[in-house]
What does this fold into?
Amino acid sequence: MRILINMSYNGKDFHGFQHQPGERTVQGEIEAILSEMHKTFTRIHPASRTDRGVHALDQYIHFDTELNIEPTKWAYILNSRLPDDIYIKSSAEVSEDFHVRYAKSKKTYRYKMYTSVPDPFKNGLAVHIDKNLDINKMNNAARQFIGTHDFTTFSSAKAVIENKVRHIYRCDVETNDDTIELVITGSGFLYNMVRIIVAYLIEVGSGARKDETKELLEATDRTRIPRTAPAAGLYLEEIDYGW
Amino acid sequence: MRILINMSYNGKDFHGFQHQPGERTVQGEIEAILSEMHKTFTRIHPASRTDRGVHALDQYIHFDTELNIEPTKWAYILNSRLPDDIYIKSSAEVSEDFHVRYAKSKKTYRYKMYTSVPDPFKNGLAVHIDKNLDINKMNNAARQFIGTHDFTTFSSAKAVIENKVRHIYRCDVETNDDTIELVITGSGFLYNMVRIIVAYLIEVGSGARKDETKELLEATDRTRIPRTAPAAGLYLEEIDYGW
It folds into this structure.
């Protein structure tokens, strides 16, 4: 039986989602519990392998089990054993040909930054920018990402995927109390793509560089944007499988 | 020259304010920097020694220095070297007979709890209560703390102070988004007093015990309230020296 889990986690104290020997990871915490319950190593598969320090408000994972446990009860069982920085929102049975990673979806990421004085309570949860940011300029530059583009300029050189064309449905910069937030929805994202887009938008907003979104997309040249914004501001906000 | 520092800190990853060998403490972080700068051990004095896990939005400390540094510059110097979970809001010179702890003040504490589903992003910053709470009942019980009372029933047995009479100016339970917050202002607080009051108010709000604030104050008997609410919800919100 394949179990689908919907969950959130605060990435601050994790070394990312993916298992790494000797490090505290989201995958490691969950697989340890499942493997003990199944008395054999039990692998989980995530919709998105978030990096070290990145948060998730709406992550999906699946795993296969032969244990005779009511599918909706897995949420309760896991929550009773997981640390407080992971929360399982729900669990359900899915078809054995469903795969959280390969099923078609729209993903939404949110990136939180702020320019007021440094706030110890935002530490690890939003990124402090020590410059004034012009939100209109950022928004004008952001909106031009909407549509279908080759995102080579805005992806890590480490991305090994050949096809770097992605479709962006939404790309807005909005304010929320004292945070400035980029919200971006796409058919998929390349490695570090959101954080590189944010690094570019911060430069546009602070006046360090002009709005050249179109030209940069056409250039398909990663060296044009050498920076990557810190992980702490990034949230996997929603995965929409179209259900 | 005596320097007064106004600061905030996120207590989540500290073993409390007070220096403890081998533990990460607020005092330890600051004294390490000051002692290195002064080339001799330099002690700081806090207005309140917050416990492990307790937060401060408005803590004061003072220290004495013979370094020829403009008093307002200490905030900048310390922020440039302190970790991100401590923030120095300002620094100024004060008279050498001013002592942050013994100067008369009103202190305000806030305690944050919530009853919605567990939220990994509130972990360490607000306390999840797994019961429904009747805020009106809590408020009625809370308001009776206002005035001058002997708080023996509501203080830790570890409190060695003889005089347990304190004056409470304000004691309200209010809601703020999805948190329920106790705000209490007093002439001073005994050890664990706010957390014991909160433990009692949670029992009143959940229906586990009736409102008996007056009777409990008169009883001057700590055994009547065996619980202490967790540290993570507690914030030192304001210290008012009457300036």
User: Anything to note?
Assistant: The longest strand of chain A covers residues 165-176. The two ends of chain A are 20 Å apart (CA to CA). The CA atoms of residues 38 and 172 of chain A lie 44 Å apart.
